[in-house]
UniProtKB/TrEMBL annotation:
Phylogenetic placement of the source organism: Bacteria, Pseudomonadati, Pseudomonadota, Alphaproteobacteria, Rhodobacterales
MF terms in GO: endonuclease activity; hydrolase activity
UniProt feature coiled coil, ranges: none
EC number per UniProt: 3.1.-.-
Function: May nick specific sequences that contain T:G mispairs resulting from m5C-deamination.
InterPro entries, A to Z: DNA_mismatch_endonuc_vsr, Restrct_endonuc-II-like
The name this protein goes by in its record: Very short patch repair endonuclease
Enzyme class, first EC level, given as a word: hydrolase
Classification via NCBIfam families: vsr
Gene Ontology BP, a term: mismatch repair
Domain of life: Bacteria
UniProtKB keywords: DNA damage, DNA repair, Endonuclease, Hydrolase, Nuclease
CDD domains: Vsr
Family: Belongs to the vsr family.
Length: 140
């Protein structure tokens, strides 16, 4: 089951890449030279962009529900992912990279943002120079 879960080139990631390219932004993908191998990184903006699945990273939203079977396994796995996310954030900051997380709930489900608005927020974040950011779905 888990072998079928994609770590790269997911549908949300491809949507964002296509839209960013259409807006004139150029980026690299999954570079092992950047901590955490971000889904996208824009060297010109010193920005690393991650597209996180709400389940896999334990986001507090309607898309995350702890499975009722093998709960201890899943809790441990999600806790490790969260700890790794925190380590990556620290490493990026220490190396002078900015970090943005786009959560899955911003792209799908009942709280999703209109895609153009999501892309506007992403481009605004790139332009402002803020160190960190998150794009989540609308709060219901």
């Amino acid at each position: 089951m888990m072998s079928g879960i994609r770590g790269k080139d997911t549908k949300p990631e491809l949507m964002i890449r296509k839209a960013l390219h259409a807006r004139g932004y150029r980026y690299r993908l999954h570079s092992p030279a950047i901590p955490g191998k971000p889904d996208l990184f824009l060297r010109r903006y010193r920005a690393a962009v991650f597209v996180h699945g709400c389940f896999w990273h334990g986001h507090d939203c309607h898309l995350f529900k702890m499975p009722s079977t093998r709960t201890a396994f899943w809790q441990h796995k999600i806790d490790r992912n969260r700890a790794r996310d925190a380590e990556v954030e620290t490493a990026l900051r220490d190396q002078g990279w900015r970090r943005l997380v786009i959560w899955e709930c911003a792209l799908k489900g009942k709280t999703r943002l209109e895609f153009g608005a999501l892309m506007d927020r992403l481009c605004e974040w790139l332009a402002t120079g803020r160190e960190t950011g998150e794009i989540t779905g609308n709060i219901v």
